[in-house]
Amino acid sequence: MKALLRVHAVASNTWREAIRNRAFIGLMIVAVGFLFFSLALAELAVRGEAARVVLDFGYFAISLFGVVIAIVMGVILVYKEIEKKTIYTILPKPIHRHEVLLGKYLGMVVVLVIEVVVMAAVWAFVLWARDAPLGMDTVMGVVLILFEIMLIASVALLFSSFSSPVLSGIFTFGIFILGRLSYLVSDMLVSSKGIFVNTPSLRPIGEVYVAVFPDLSVFNVSQDLLQGVSIPAAYVVASGAYALSYIIVFMALAMLLFQRRDFI
Amino acid sequence: MTTESSPSTPVLEFFDLHKKFAVGLRMKKVEAVRGVSLSVAPGEVFGFLGPNGAGKTTTIKMAMGLIRPTQGSIQLFGGEPERLEARARVGYLPEHPYFYDYLKPTEILDFYARIFGISRSERKRRIDSLLERVGLGDVRNRTLRKFSKGMLQRVGIAQSLINDPDLLVLDEPLSGLDPIGRKEVRDLLVELRRAGKTIFFSSHILSDIEMLCDKVAIVHHGRIQSIGRMDDLLNPDQMSTEITFRASDSLLGQLKADGMEVDVLGDYMRLRIEGSTTSILSTLLEGGAQIDSVLPKRESLEDLFVRGVVQSGDTEEAS
User: Among residues A169, A160, A170, A23, which one has the least CA distance to residue A101?
Assistant: First the structure.
């Protein structure tokens, strides 16, 4: 119980830091502006395609800004604590190092949830304004985006527990890209032609790639939404469990590294 | 608060502490702390004195769990320093403290108090009282980014007291403060000492240590040069005599001709004599000098400090 209170104290401070950060507020305004811009873009669309434009563009914008905020926040959070030496006043207090990291992560998750909810609300308005399909599947799509950015946030936090923000940002973005392309490698591994058939010695690399990096394409259902394909709740739950398993691994690694670190 | 240690158990103990860092691209090993051992008794004000770069902050950070010792061990309230129960009894002020600058003093203190698990009503009471105590009552609703260095130091002192600690570990607590601030913080430390708190603090400013401490350890190049009670460390014997006088130019010329080093301070002159003063006083009086004062000088902490640093073969870093 006391541990929860300590984690809550760190998490609520992280949340407070975000909402008082002008860069974060600015990014949110740009993100919302981006969604409204899709209305203007829809005007340029071929007749009958306006709904498709706002649907596709909005989904892309929520995902893009979510990932950007998750990476930026994740790589800066721990680094700033160390660089600004605020960590020196926290760690000597009766709190475990892993609780500090968990509090930081949960605070960041709250920020990301609110960011996604705000963007999703604006997107819903845009969809409604353009008579685009708006239903439970849209909500499921947003929930999947949220899982993906929560996973990316844990990757960013992992790198920031031992690396500089620039390097952490590059590494995290790299994992994001590799994760988004993971499905292509999976397809190639089961395909009867392609690089792994032509060069069998490369096959283990592909297998390790698929085994190590999360397949982020499972969270991207934009094509299903465009084609009106239903997104079952079971799929969302399974995807959530998949994201959570990676989050646990990345957070455990981050805690291990943070635990061993000297704060000189 | 829980107390599993007996009243005589040392509050803080270092046993042969060492710390090596890998520095630069070649990862060259540098030993910042080389075998520090000391013991701080309950209710004691212990000064950790040394020039910049002596290893004071590294030693303190090891005690606070921010850095792991390469060798040696630490006992806090008679047990492992990592125990949360032990850390709940400690207040720590880092050197040049930084805080979340988007928060107000009330908010930052509330945040720290929540980590200690202090109840909401008690938090409010303690924060109000502490802000008044460190002289920040009037700026309680101003964000920390608008605070001066001295004001941040006061916030640092307030946060170190939020849990009403039994042990205060303060790294250069008087740095960054103006003369009035220094006096206020010194008074606060005296008040805390009277309240029975144990205080371990580092400084490179001798007068702070001399004024406040019962016991002192002088550290240089990561090693303790001298350690003990102030009375035991300082030589009680008179070392020299300082004579202040007014004299004619001819007498001044005569003294200088005799090889004496006379400081001329406007109308006054000053001489420092080791050994008997009978002969020089006779010379001065016979030469018509007006003697203003004759002050015996005993060894000061500064003398001891300089002696220790010189003995260790390096005076460059001494400040």
Answer: A160
- Taking an 8 Å cut-off on Cβ atoms, the answer to whether B112 and A89 are in contact is yes
Interface contacts A/B by beta carbons within 8 Å: 84
Burial readout B28-59 (b: 16 or more C-beta within 10 A, e: otherwise): eeebbbbebebebbbbbbbbbbbbebbbbbbb
Distance in Å, alpha carbon of B79 to nearest chain A alpha carbon: 15
Comparing CB atoms, the residue among B85, B98, B114 nearest residue A86 is B98
Test B61 with A5 for CB contact under 8 angstroms: no
Mean pLDDT by 10 residues, chain A (264 residues): 91 90 87 87 76 86 92 88 88 95 95 93 88 85 95 94 89 93 86 78 86 91 84 94 96 93 86
The rounded distance, in Å, linking the Cα atoms of A207 and A212 is 9
Please say whether the dihedral angle defined by the alpha carbons of residues A106, A107, A108 and A112, taken in this order, is positive or negative: positive
Give this prediction's pTM: 0.83
Cβ distance of A21 and B102 shorter than 8 Å: yes
- Chain-centre distance for alpha carbon B14: 18
A1 inside 8 A of chain B by CB: no
Question: If chain B, 319 residues long, is cut into consecutive pieces of 10 residues, what is the mean pLDDT of each piece?
Answer: 63 93 82 91 91 89 93 93 93 89 92 94 94 89 88 91 94 85 86 91 81 88 86 70 90 88 88 85 90 81 71 49
- Chain B closest CA to A83's CA: distance in Å? 10
Q: Domain residues of chain B, as ranges?
A: 12-229, 239-298
Superfamily of domain B12-229: P-loop containing nucleotide triphosphate hydrolases (3.40.50.300)
CB atoms A92 and B100 under 8 Å: no
User: Does the domain formed by B239-298 have CATH 3.30.70.3100?
Assistant: yes
